[in-house]
Write a structure and sequence with these properties.
The protein contains eleven helices and three strands, in the order αβααββαααααααα. By secondary structure, it is mainly α. Among the domains are: 90 residues, Winged helix-like DNA-binding domain superfamily/Winged helix DNA-binding domain (Arc Repressor Mutant, subunit A), CATH 1.10.10.10; 95 residues, no CATH class. The chain has a three-stranded antiparallel β-sheet with strand order 1-3-2. Strand 2 and strand 3 form a beta hairpin. The longest helix has 40 residues. The radius of gyration is 34 Å and the shape is flat.
Length: 272
C-alpha cells in the first residue's frame, strides 16, 4: 500500500498536535483501503511507530475530536470516525484520493511524454539519407490522423453550434408554450437528427393551432415543446381551415403577432 502526504498537513490545524499524531497520520494514509477504511490496533501500531500504546490511543482520540479550525467542515473537522473495535473511516478520503489520482495521472503523462521525446530524438539521430523519407512519412502519419480527428471534431462542434443557434433564434421564439426550455434544447438537437430545420419549423403553425383550439377546455393541459419534439409532432396533419391558412400566407416563419391576428379572425381554425 502507499499514500500521498500533502504539505498542508504540516501547515494546518494539526500544528502542535505532537509527534505521535504526526507519526500516526502517515500510517493511516498508507494503510487505508480503496473505500477509505483503516484498521488501527493501538498495541500493534505502538510497536511499529516506537511509542506507547497509551500515546497511540491519545492520538486516535485527538484525530476523532472536532476541530473548528480545520480547513474541512465535514464531520465537524474530525479526521477519522470509529466504525468498529479497530476499524476507522477516514473523513474526506475520496476527495484526497481524487487529488492523488489526478497528480499520479499527470506524473504518468509527463513520464510518457519524456520517453516519447527521448525515443523520437534517438530515431532522428539514427536516420540515414537512404531511409530518411520513410521515417519522416512514418512520423507524419500520426500527426495527419490527429489533424483529421480534430477536423472531424471541429465540424461536429460547428454543427452543434448551428443547431443551438437555430433553437434560440428560430424555434424557441415561435413555440406557443414556452415551457421547459432546458429540456427542449437537447430535444430539438435530437429532432434535428431526424428531420430538417424547415420540416420542424413548418410544423409550428399546426402546433400553435392545436393549442389555440384546446385552450378554453376545462381539462386543458399545455403540450410542452419537449413533448412535441420527442413525439415528432411536426408531422401531424393540420385539421383546420387549410384554405384560409394558405390565403393568409402564413408559413413556419410567421411571427407571434401574425398568428394572433390570424386566430382572432379564424377562431375555429385548427379545431379537431
Amino acid at each position: 500500500m502507499y499514500g500521498k502526504i500533502f504539505e498542508t498537513m504540516y501547515t494546518g490545524s494539526l500544528v502542535g498536535a505532537g509527534p505521535t499524531v504526526f507519526a500516526l497520520m502517515p500510517y493511516i494514509v498508507t494503510h487505508c483501503n480503496a473505500e477509505g477504511y483503516v484498521e488501527i490496533n493501538p498495541k500493534l501500531v505502538s510497536v511499529i511507530i516506537g511509542t506507547t500504546e497509551d500515546e497511540i490511543k491519545h492520538a486516535i482520540d485527538y484525530l476523532m475530536g472536532e476541530d473548528s479550525d480545520s480547513r474541512s467542515e465535514e464531520e465537524g473537522g474530525r479526521r477519522i470516525i470509529q466504525e468498529g473495535a479497530f476499524l476507522y473511516r477516514v473523513v474526506n478520503y475520496a476527495k484526497y484520493r481524487a487529488l492523488r489520482d489526478a497528480d499520479t495521472r499527470r506524473e504518468q503523462t509527463r513520464e510518457r511524454v519524456k520517453r516519447w521525446r527521448q525515443k523520437h530524438k534517438e530515431c532522428n539521430s539514427s536516420v540515414t539519407h537512404g531511409n530518411a523519407p520513410k521515417r519522416q512519412a512514418d512520423a507524419a502519419a500520426p500527426v495527419t490522423a490527429k489533424k483529421k480527428a480534430r477536423s472531424k471534431s471541429d465540424r461536429q462542434s460547428s454543427k452543434e453550434g448551428l443547431i443551438a443557434n437555430e433553437f434560440e433564434t428560430e424555434f424557441w421564439p415561435r413555440v406557443p408554450n414556452k415551457i421547459g426550455k432546458g429540456k427542449a434544447r437537447p430535444a430539438y438537437a435530437a429532432a434535428r437528427g431526424k428531420a430538417s430545420k424547415e420540416d420542424i419549423l413548418a410544423g409550428l403553425p399546426s402546433y400553435r393551432a392545436y393549442e389555440e383550439s384546446r385552450s378554453n377546455q376545462s381539462d386543458y393541459r399545455p403540450l410542452h415543446p419537449t413533448t412535441w419534439l420527442n413525439q415528432e409532432r411536426w408531422t401531424d396533419e393540420f385539421s383546420g381551415d387549410q384554405d384560409e391558412w394558405e390565403k393568409a400566407g402564413l408559413s413556419h416563419c410567421a411571427t407571434d403577432e401574425e398568428l394572433d391576428a390570424f386566430f382572432a379572425k379564424h377562431p375555429t381554425c385548427g379545431a379537431e
